[in-house]
Amino acid sequence: MSWCSRLVGSYDGSKVRPYIFQLQLVKHSANRLFSLGDSGFTHIRLPTLHHVSPHQTHAFNTPYQLSQIPAKLRRQMTEFGGRGPLGDQPRDAAVSTHTFQHGDIVIFATDGVWDNLFEDEILNLVMSECKHFDVVEDSSSSSINTKALVSATRDREVYPQFADQKLKREDRSLQAAIATSIVQASKVAGENEKRDGPFAKAVQKAYPYETWHGGKADDISVVVLIALEESKIDAVSAKL
């Protein structure tokens, strides 16, 4: 936990530190994903959006929050009237079932992304990075270059030692490059006072007379999952 605190405390919003982990998914079987609140995910099956998790809110700009409200605080809130503090539990999560295929990409992100980037913009960023790594030929291609994909997703074993140390693009894996691209685009959009993003559009819809325009500065975190089929990885490795 102290390591996490140092990591968060050293981040100034302008740089991305990639951390790579492996998660075993079951092919041709149901993999359940849980989402709660205004953080969410999108499942991309190149070159299209396959699924987008719902935003869960009690009311406008009042997202579900995973929390445990102390009994004393609940009693105090009740004494002052009203429904009391909102406290949501894991059972309140939206659950969706997914069957992943080789090359599928899942983007998990906090509301600093979803409030500032539209879903098609995120898809375009993903496709752009896939094209840069030669995983696909163009932004409309569904044909995946497995050799390029396996190479692009390997751990580069190059990590910044300090928060202000930058990585060269060629030092990043595909998943790190996608995360970097989304974080940077979200930050730029969030600071743009003239461009109306998803949050601004939602404000205007909920409150037609509201004068809110531009982006919404908020926390930005992105985790990228790329599904690889073991048999295809082994086939590529055997040829190397």
Short descriptors:
240 residues; four-stranded antiparallel beta sheet; 8 strands; alpha+beta; disordered N terminus; two-stranded antiparallel sheet
Brief summary:
The protein has 240 residues and is α+β, with helices and mostly antiparallel strands. The protein is built from 8 helices and 8 strands.
How does this structure look, described?
This protein is of the alpha+beta class. The chain has one domain. 33% of the residues lie in helices and 15% in strands. It has a four-stranded antiparallel sheet. The protein has a two-stranded antiparallel ribbon with strand order 1-6. Helix 4 runs antiparallel to helix 6. The N terminus is likely disordered.
SSE layout:
Blueprint lengths: L1 H8 L21 E5 L4 E6 L2 E5 L4 E3 L2 E2 L7 H9 L14 E5 L6 E5 L1 H4 L4 H14 L13 H7 L21 H18 L6 H9 L15 E5 L3 H10 L1
Antiparallel strand pairs: 1-6, 2-3, 2-7, 4-5, 7-8
Radius of gyration: 20 Å
Number of helices: 8
Query: Strand count, sense and closure of the main sheet?
Result: 4 strands, antiparallel
Q: In terms of structural class, how would the helical and strand content be classed? A: alpha+beta
Rounded mean pLDDT score? 82
| SSE topology string | HEEEEEHEEHHHHHEH
Give the N-terminus to C-terminus distance in angstroms. 40 Å
Strand content: 15-25%
- Total count of domains: 1
The general outline is globular
Give the helix level as a range of percent: 25-40%
Strand order of the largest sheet: 3-2-7-8
